Amino acid sequence: MDQFTLNLLFVGASFALYIGIAIWARAGSTSEFYAAGRGVHPVTNGMATAADWMSAASFISMAGLIAFTGYDNSSFLMGWTGGYVLLALLLAPYLRKFGKFTVSEFIGDRFYSPTARLVAVICLLVASITYVIGQMQGVGIAFGRFLEIDAFWGLLIGACVVFAYAVFGGMKGVTYTQVAQYCVLITAYTIPAVFISLQLTGTPIPALGLFGEHTASGEPLLAKLDAIVTDLGFKEYTAAHGSTINMVLFTLSLMIGTAGLPHVIMRFFTVPKVSDARWSAGWTLVFIALLYLTAPAVGAMARLNISDLMWPNGTGGEAVSVEQIETDPEYAWMATWQKTGLLDWEDKNGDGKIQYYNDANADLQAKAAEKGWQGNELTKFNRDILVLANPEIASLPGWVIGLVAAGGLAAALSTAAGLLLAISSAVSHDLLKGQLTPNMSERNELLAARISMAAAIVVAVLLGLNPPGFAAQTVALAFGLAAASIFPALMMGIFSTRINNSGAVAGMLAGLVVTLLYIFLHKGWFFIPDTNSFTDADPLLGPVKSTSFGAIGALVNFIVAYVVSGMTKETPEHIKALVASVRVPRGAGAAVDGH
């Protein structure tokens, strides 16, 4: 059976499973559409939350960013994992105890203001739409490769699949679909990693193999990798980060952005009790750890395999030839990925070989001139393809490649569905039902939710065609926006009675606006829009990049909220009592002065 047929079988079977589950669990009420009827078991919810959380950025893009940058991009791992702990400890149980359907509804009621709810909807939409761009980008990449079509058509096919199970199933359908998607994605991520770890280190556990010996050379694997990439003119894989300030801010931005992401928070509204919210948070950490402990090994081993393939006789020997790429089965993956437009090369000096090296490295320029090289000839290598191409690069069996195809799509589709559900809930429940047409019937609200989700899918496809970065970079921007706008409002709403409606509204707007301005200025989109370019302009504030600014935006939010609250009317007593009831467990005694 050829590889294309295997891919179709694995992907087709997984899609049939997802759509079948959605039909079985079709939402028949707004409670089922928004919160799955609040009847999801903590373990089930933990698995669904893990799938919702581990998006295309985690499955497809994160290992690629680590592979090509090394130690610097470990901040993705630290930020996303630490952020989930923050969410589990500080927000999830309290928001579940409040008993509403959406984050915006909590903010509107806590800050006793329709305006606050409306601003929260705006912040949620900006962050969620930015996030879903990265997911649709991942869908397009995975479909494009494994159906051997252009990424544009892959994006459209993926959008149709999401539409089929998310629009009709709502949170109830999405929950049980995400359980199936978690099983698919974690299996698809782990099996190739085990195979490759055995090949390179003889160790079946990738996380241990990363710190083990490279079997072929007898050197530590990371030392071998450092030697190869430095010979090619790149910095050491394990080299220290460039800017401590930017790395700290970036990690913090990812952490608090995680805790402010509405599509993850919504999952904790689906369990029966507050204690179940805590348990499901714990289970989610277990399920997430299975992938996140493996990702660094996947990135390092993939980089080693690629470098060995491009220089088969060692870094000082001859580069891979064009003839090898065209005829050798070991290099067939390159020709296949070239069809997607995400990988390309050019024999610039006409020597019949493809030189892969850092042509900006001054130390290599003399050597390059001596050998007649005219620059790096691997002209395009989209980092988002690395995990999907990894089994082919390592010459693993065809069924593993088909499994990875299904896993990559499961990761992207699961999070896309959660985000689209958060967007539709914000539009139908918070904007239409909560603001514009409060007397809307439940039937009409359910119809509005489905229509708004369909519209959100169309917007996500249009924006996904021209993303502002690699999938993980685009997602990092979304985290920064959530960190600057939603997280501070939730924290102050739960843990402070000083913040009133005016302070909350001013804080959210200030955090959102200043972060958006910084991102647009840093990306250079105001005067020369070029969303096809993944390079940034020089940072405007020291070494702080656009993906790291969310932490500063959050600080602006906190400061503005406290200053404005101090200048305006005090929070009403009944709201102070509401805060105390959310924060203090039953039977613990009355709160004193709301504290």
Span from first to last CA?
67 Å
What is the overall pLDDT average? 80
Query: Main beta sheet, described?
Result: 2 strands, antiparallel
Radius of gyration: 24 Å
Q: Give the spatial strand order of the biggest sheet.
A: 1-3
CATH superfamily caption of the largest domain: Sodium/glucose cotransporter
Specify the number of helices: 25
Helix content: 55-70%
At CATH level 3, the topology of the largest domain is: Sodium/glucose cotransporter
Q: Globular, elongated, flat, extended or rod-shaped: what is the shape?
A: globular
The total number of structural domains is: 2
Number of β-strand runs: 4
In brief:
It is found in: Membrane. By secondary structure, the chain is mainly alpha-helical. The protein has 25 helices and four strands.
Keywords:
single chain; 595 residues; mainly alpha; Sodium/glucose cotransporter; two-stranded antiparallel sheet; 25 helices; globular; disordered C terminus
Describe how the helices and strands are arranged.
Blueprint: H1 3-24, H2 30-35, H3 42-53, H4 56-69, H5 74-90, H6 92-98, H7 103-110, H8 114-146, H9 151-201, H10 206-209, H11 221-231, H12 244-259, H13 262-265, H14 274-292, H15 295-310, E1 320-321, H16 322-327, H17 332-338, E2 343-344, E3 353-354, H18 362-371, E4 380-381, H19 386-393, H20 398-436, H21 442-464, H22 471-495, H23 501-523, H24 550-567, H25 573-583
